[in-house]
Amino acid sequence: MNVDRWRETEDLFHEALKQPAAARAGFVASTAAGRDGLADEVMALLDAHDSTHTLLDAPRISALPSGMRLGPYALDRLLGTGGMATVYLAHRADQQFEKHVAVKLVNQGLAAELSGDRFLNERQILARLEHPNIARLLDAGVSDFGQPFIVMEWVDGVPLDTWREQTRPPVETALTLWLQIAEAVAYAHRNLVVHRDLKPSNVLVSRDGQVKLVDFGVAKLLGDATDQAATTRTRHFTPQYASPEQLQGLAVTTSTDIYGLGLLLHELVVGAPPYGDATRPSHEYAQAILEEDVRMPRTVPADLAAIIRMSLRKDPERRYVSADQFAEDVRRFRRGRPVTAQPETWTYHFRTFLSRHRVPVATAALGVISLIVLTIIALVQARIANEQRARAEQVTSFVTGFLGATPTGPDPVLQNKGVSLRVVELADVIAQRLGSNDTLQPEAEQTLRAVLAMTYYQMGEIQKAHENAVRAIELCDRLYGPEDPRRFSVEIVQAAVENSLGKFADAEARASRIMATWHDPSPLDQANVALQLGGAQLRLGKADVAERTMREGVARAVAELGADHPSLGLAASYLGLVYLERGEFDRAVIELDRSAAISRRSVKDASMPLAWVLVNLANAYRFLGRTDDVLRAAEESYAQFKGALGEGHYSTVHPLAFIAYAKAIRGDDDAETFARRAVAVQASLPPDNYERAVGLTFLGFVLMQKHELAEARTTLQQALELRRHAFKAPNWRIAETAGWLGEVLAQQGDRASARPLLEESLATFTTLYGAQNPRTLDARARLARSLD
Amino acid sequence: MSGTAPDITDLLLRWSDGDQHALEELTPVVYDDLRRLARAILSRERPDHTLSATALVHEAYLKLVDQRRVRWQNRVHFFGAAAHIMRRVLVDHARARITQKRGGLSTKLAISDSLALVDVLSEDLLDLDGALDRLAATDPRKARVVEMKFFAGMTNEETGEALQVSDATVERDWTMARAWLIRTLAGKPEKRDGSKDNGDHQ
After folding, report:
1. What is the ipTM of this complex?
2. Which of A67-81, A381-395, A525-539 has the lowest mean pLDDT?
3. B47 phi/psi in degrees, rounded to 5
4. What's the DSSP call for residue B149?
5. Interchain CB distance below 8 Å, A55 and B174
6. Beta bridge pairs of residue A101
7. Neighbouring residues of A128: CB distance < 8 A, sequence distance ≥ 6
8. Can you give the pLDDT at residue A13?
């Protein structure tokens, strides 16, 4: 090894260590720029620095022989060792009765730093703490070897995390225990003592369920001496339980203990680290503490989750003001009363999102940043935070109204506010940045891809949705494996995408698989999967199966949220569609009307859910021959679509086609104009997209009404081909297009070609709806009229 | 041990007073005693060598040195010397174990889990020993710091006293040496221990 290079490496390594963990990589890269391999070497050392080595980091302490005396205390046996101290079970040798104590012997070079007056003062303050749930500090001194030691009440118990693992307490028991801890902390705070180091290993639970906090204030006792040295001292500690302010070297206050209490509550309730896998490299974990939101499984009740989140906020000033207030909220939760903890505001998330991810200011300048954009970003945040189910769901139901979907097109997005195309613009900006950003962590990319997939899908950008969903699923496989909720969420979107692309069998297979493997979906997720599965089944000609799938799938959501919940309004619409498929048009109208009414309650204009219900309602009216109602519903639908997506979006094909249809029946002059607009708005779709058949079919119908047979024929032929390709089983869409094409062919005198189409149409309607259905009768009349 | 103790104490005092020959005489005496103690402790089949090692040095010190006659600095020097000796004792012990295991004499013993663990550590220890030699070639002081802190459990202050540098320098040396060693030893993947908290403060 070259000695100069060694010195250079060493200097940069130490300089980098003085930087905050998050800034080190950047610091090294810029300082070592142009120096071949130096940055890599230093980064490798920094990584090594942050990791733990079984041998080098094995307790390297003066394990004293038992029987040895420290002042008046005789050591009995070693209880445990740590980086800074070794704990012995001991007893006071100069007394007749044998009372056990725990002697904590300070390791390493802290000896000289601890002998000051402050140490003595501090320990006297601590010795005055008398609380049944706080292990008493009994004595402190310096050994013959010059090692300071602290003598504490000995607690014969197990650490909190071990206790939780062993006893698996119900939430009620866990909360009772935690309240004891909180009261002890509140007592200490009243005595102006901060624990500073609340973590499971400092909370001991005895066999009879008594809890005691140990090491109260010890961190300070030792910390005052070590703070100065902290920048140069090796810090190969696990930061798992450090607070953000401690990691940043900011002041430690009672709020640090609020955070610690939050960690303990999280530990008790969740039983897992708050920022995911504890085996992450410590610098990564430290960064997570500073930046990520707490992970919380969806099984945690929303209010309790809100309480924990509030206590674990990054900014000490935004946490509970006191341990008492914190405890009071937990008691309120226990009594089933409303809690004071509030989720972080969206604007807060928006600010932090912007500052953390450096979204270009251009994004902010897109214009008025509407509430939607904010909520999308909040959703991004929530997903990044990962498993933030409570909020993610809240936001999702508000922003995305995933249930507000119809099988005939993309699920609608917003229920309360108009959708802006700016959402797509924003999504494009994010997608673009994702494509060019290779420093992003795969977890973050996965989250963003998932959100983009959903956003694009809901905006009707199916191809983009597909690309992002594929990528998100790919990342899930790599990161989380096949049965992770994050994967399932994206897969729901992917199933919806497949439904939109006419790949119904794929959608059915995918949704079935999700249903079979996802054991604990939220009610809304369950409903989402069921609706996608049902939608696919419906279009595969299995209306009965679809009805059962959807009814069972939404049952939980209906039970929890009520059938008239805005998010469930369009579940009714799905049922309407089942009836529509079955030819039960009156029942379809009832369900669809109900669904529209639910939607109208929560929206004013620009509602895609409402737009889709009205499309289906118009269709039902069409089959009942209620032409004026068709026109009314289609026009209202168009207005909603236009508000949501702007003019010319391809989803507007549906209302435009029905407007054209109604007008053609009524003999209005502008029927063809609407029909041609319907075809035109679909120009952006791929040529083989099955939805193109909608515009073509109705243009064909209008042309037929106008006796422009040649164009009607080619148009209907194209439409029929698309529909045959998309729908394998007998389907009324194929039957309708085939019937009209047959009629056109017959009018052109080509009876030989017309007959099989007209017969197929009649047969299909008979199979689907029965012989007496109005549409079947209509097909029969068409056959007779055309061929006689 | 009463016969040896005064000799060692004398040697230690002479060495502290600057007599380099005293160290040469001291080493074999202390080595034999340390090895005897080591065998006793290691035979308890506790896998945590290093913990035992530091305890060993303490025990050796308490038994071999007449504490009424030495000052704190003498103790530091004893520990400093003992660190290097301790390293050799442990490495020799590890080699012996591995040879024994490979020689097939005690295959049965090696089946036991606790022994297997000792053997894994033995391999690690030999790797560490080799890496320390490489470190010593570039930066001898850092290798000494590791020896003292790791093999004798000396504090920064004690190490600094023994090497005649400040505590801060010791800490700096240790931080760098530790990172370099972990990186150098990284051929054998290490498990991160994030789940267990050791009571480490700050």
Report:
1. 0.75
2. A381-395
3. -75, -20
4. I
5. no
6. A90, A153
7. A191
8. 94
